Amino acid sequence: MKKNKSQCNDFNEKLSKVIDYLKDLSNDKREELFVILRKVQDIQKSDLNTKQKTQAIKRVMWKEQSVKSKLFIGGFIGTVAGLFIFGTGGIGIAGLGGAIGIWGFLAGTAGGILVSSLVQNFEKINQDN
After folding, report:
1. Would you kindly state where each structural domain of the chain is located, as residue ranges?
2. Which contacts (CB < 8 Å, 24+ apart) does range 82-85 have?
3. Mutual angle of helices 109-128 and 27-45, in 10-degree steps
4. What is the rounded average pLDDT of the residues 53-68?
5. Residue 67, CB half-sphere, CA atoms under 13 Å: how many?
6. Which pLDDT score is estimated for 23?
7. For residue 73, which of 46, 40, 107, 42 has the smallest C-alpha distance?
8. Which of 33 and 115 is assigned the larger pLDDT?
9. How many helices (H) and strands (E) does the chain have?
10. Residue 43: its pLDDT value, please?
11. Is residue 24 classed as helix, strand or coil in its secondary structure?
12. Closest of 74, 90, 73, 71 to residue 82, by C-alpha
């Protein structure tokens, strides 16, 4: 039980750092990311199997994006993956969307929790502005 509480606190601490990162983004970048995360959330909630969800998320977050957007999304993925995998010392380690298994992670339960948390926080940030 103690381990689960520790893991929950660790997740919340890392999520807080990601939220701080989001607050520092321009309104345009936040809105762009919010729209993409909403699409990812819709895919996560769909009846597709995990492989199909993985492919759909990769398409939405990567294949359908412009080069400029890919740089932004890759930086975001790198930041989030770095914070969650390595703490603050690994920021950018998964830059340009090359993180091992990031699409599969986002299609799974943990990725669903992360995206849902981010979407809720995006909505809160937008209400505060």
Report:
1. 2-128
2. 83/14, 83/17, 83/18, 83/21, 84/14, 84/114
3. 140
4. 89
5. 0
6. 81
7. 40
8. 33
9. 6, 0
10. 94
11. coil
12. 90
For the stretch 28-31, contacts whose Cβ atoms lie closer than 8 Å and that sit 24 or more positions apart, written own/partner, are 29/72, 30/122, 30/125, 30/126
Q: pTM of this prediction?
A: 0.68
- Residue type at 89 in one-letter notation: G
Comparing 94-103, 107-116, 118-127, which segment has the lowest mean pLDDT? Answer: 94-103
d(CA 96, CA 74): 4
Angle at 126 between CA 117 and CA 82, to 5 degrees: 40
Average pLDDT (34-58) is 91
What angle do the packed helices 67-86 and 27-45 form, to 10 degrees?
70
Rounded-to-integer distance, Cα 14 and Cα 66, Å = 29
Residues in the chain: 129
Higher per-residue pLDDT: 96 or 62: 62
Helix pair 2-23, 109-128: axis angle to 10 deg: 50
